[in-house]
Amino acid sequence: MPVRRSLLAAALGAAALLCATAAPAAAAPGEYITVDATGRIAADGTVTLSGSYRCTGATGPAFIGSSVSQGTVRQQGIGGSGARCDGVEHRWQNSGKPYGQTLRPGPARVQATVVELRPSGIVLLPVFHAQSDRDITLVQG
User: Fold this and answer.
1) What is the pLDDT of residues 103-140, one digit of tens each?
2) In CATH terms, is domain 2-140 a member of 2.60.40.2550?
3) In angstroms, how far is CA 134 from the centroid of its own chain?
4) Whole-number pLDDT of residue 98
5) What is the tally of helices (H) and strands (E) in the chain?
6) Residue 98's CB: how many other CB atoms inside 10 A?
7) How far apart are CA 55 and CA 41, in angstroms?
8) Fewer beta carbons below 10 Å: N end or C end of the chain?
9) Closest listed residue to residue 101, CA positions, set 128, 78, 127
10) pLDDT (0 to 100) of residue 38
């Protein structure tokens, strides 16, 4: 079951990032997401991004989605993870391999989003809690 949950989190995180470009996040007071200044690239090409977040008031499942772009490499989704919107600051970390692209050590741009899938009748609607865009440095290791 953990694999299934991880896949669901990754898929929903990627969907959140796609929606975030169309509807920017409007964080409630006290809600935020940060991105650490350094990301890592493993020998196999897996990218790991991290940061912290705080969100409140979620009534549905919440997720952290992240993506990275670098030079001519367009925005690539990097994993997805569950979020706890309990008003406490938490750390997040997402890992994944860019699809069909190779990232290299050096400057990159990261976008991270906290999104909730809130029940509304028979559908789940995305509610954006926070979004952050940051220039970072990718390092090997």
Assistant:
1) 899 999 999 999 999 988 899 999 999 999 999 999 99
2) yes
3) 12
4) 87
5) 1, 8
6) 21
7) 28
8) N
9) 78
10) 98
For residue 123, the Cα-to-chain-centroid distance in whole angstroms is 22
Q: What residues does 8 pair with on adjacent strands?
A: none
CA–CA distance, 77 with 97 (Å, rounded to integer) = 8
List pLDDT tens digits, range 57-82: 888 999 999 999 998 778 889 989 99
Angle at 55 between CA 59 and CA 70, to 5 degrees: 115
pTM of the model: 0.79
- Where do the domains of the chain lie? 2-140
3-class state of residue 93 by DSSP: strand
Q: Which helix (H) or strand (E) holds 136?
A: strand 123-140
∠ CA 24-92-52, nearest 5°, is 70
